[in-house]
Design goal:
The protein has two domains: 1-40, no CATH class; 44-87. 48% of the residues lie in helices and 0% in strands. The longest helix is centred in the middle third of the chain and has 19 residues, at 46-64. It is mainly α and 87 residues long. It is flat.
């Protein structure tokens, strides 16, 4: 990561007064709770992962009633933008 951070500072993407930090997100696990094995071809396609994330987020939104009053299409659009980082 230090090479990446140095490049960010040298290129001016990050100014000297900005602190950069790497955030670890962990592993992607299958239904069995074990990490995907990329070398064995057991990885999930990105579009399938996005669908799963959106479905899970919509379910949690329904449970907590935060999406009441919004059309279903609007809920899906907003959920996708937030979860995938497109907003």
């Amino acid at each position: 990561m230090s090479k990446f951070f140095r490049a960010a500072y040298k290129s001016g993407i990050a100014s000297a007064d900005v602190g950069l930090e790497h955030n670890y997100f962990g592993t992607m696990n299958g239904k069995d709770g074990k990490p995907f094995k990329t070398r064995e071809g057991g990885t999930m396609k990105l579009k399938d992962l996005i669908v799963l994330v959106i479905e899970a987020a919509l379910a949690r939104m329904a449970e907590s009633h935060v999406a009441e009053g919004y059309e279903e299409a609007e809920q899906q659009e907003n959920c996708a933008a937030c979860r995938v980082g497109c907003a």
